[in-house]
Amino acid sequence: MRYRTAVLAFALACAAPVCAQGADGLNSTVTEQAPLPVWPKGVPSMKGWPGLASVPVKEELRENGEQVWNVTVPTLQPFLPDPAKATGTAVIVAPGGGFRLLAIHHEGTRVARWLAERGIAAFVLKYRLIQSFPGETNEAMRTRVQSMASGSGGIPGTEDGTEALRIVRANAAKWGVDPHRVGIVGFSAGGHVAGMTMFAANAADRPDFAGLIYGMPFGNPEPVIPPANLPFPEGTPKEPWLQPKPKPAPGRLPPMFLAMAQDDLAVGQGFRAFYDKLFGAGYRPEMHLYERGSHGFGAAQRGTTSDLWLEQFGRWIATEINSK
Fold first, then answer.
1. Which of 10, 67, 105, 270 is deepest in the core (most CB within 10 A)?
2. 3-state secondary structure of 210
3. Which domains does the chain possess?
4. Which residue, among 169, 199, 189, has the nearest Cα to 181 in the 3D structure?
5. Cis amide prior to 50 (ω within 30 degrees)
6. How many other C-beta atoms lie within 10 A of the C-beta of residue 303?
7. Are the C-beta atoms of 212 and 194 separated by less than 8 Å?
8. How sure is the predictor about 146, in pLDDT bands with cuts at 50, 70 and 90?
9. What is the mean pLDDT of residues 154-183?
């Protein structure tokens, strides 16, 4: 009964406009709509996926509603800006939680509201998760998840993320969005989901830009990073300062914003290695390495420079995405 009451309250709160304090000190209206099903005609089969439980599970809220567990029916919740402030840009927000749970507010709704207050339509993606057995402890589940093949926990979430991009583009006119300025931002495991959408086989299905916040695409094998630029013609000087401006290669990945704290013991090495591979392939993503902030800073204020990442992400969108 308590679970049903919490879910009902959450749905009612999300269906109405709310008045939020903007960066300019004035109140701005953000319209929080009810979550929409990502797969209205039925969720794709996950037969054979190792994240399925052998018994039926129910989605549930934990930790005073801060966490969502056992997501089996993914949804997309729109947070639409005041039309007077709308920029036409949209961002899908993919919370993290190790594919076991979603930090739905800390890395979801609070980020979405911040973006919408500044004219960016935001859509919180509640993607499918590895299912928790009834009575299974957090530590027992963590151990079980670690035994799964690398990256396999994010397979359905990536499928949900790619479909969410299609949904936003298909409804661009209704939501006041430019279908060519639809990006995605993900945190931790959500960073894997966001990152993997960049590798969609059909380039038209990829996001127009991506933010990877202490999370990146991984797996075994890891996705192959395509070259960012075409090779220089034969005879081009080897010295970078003598070379002409490179020409973008077909199939290159979209613009990226990366951020993490250097005391992040969860993904620190892998995140920096991913940046190095991007750089080696010719990409020059926006990269922020904060001295402190640890893992999972999200929308929290920790008293470190990692608190600035949202402002910097918003500025990057304004200068690198909206200006082109």
1. 105
2. strand
3. 2-14+27-40+52-230+243-321 (3.40.50.1820)
4. 169
5. no
6. 9
7. yes
8. confident
9. 98
pLDDT digits (tens, 9 = 90+) for 238-269: 999 999 999 999 999 999 999 999 999 999 88
**What's the full length of the chain, in residues?**
324
- The pTM of this model reads 0.91
Tokens 């013609």 — which residue?
A: 233
Tokens representing 250 are 């077909």
How far, rounded to the nearest angstrom, does the alpha carbon of residue 17 sit from its chain's CA centroid?
23
Structure tokens at 224: 């192959």
Express as a percent the part of the chain with pLDDT over 90. 83
- How do beta strands 17-21 and 27-32 pair? antiparallel
Residue with tokens 């299912």: 131
Return mean pLDDT, the chain.
91
Element (H, E) at 76: strand 75-80
Amino acid at 143: T
Q: What is the DSSP letter of 305?
A: G
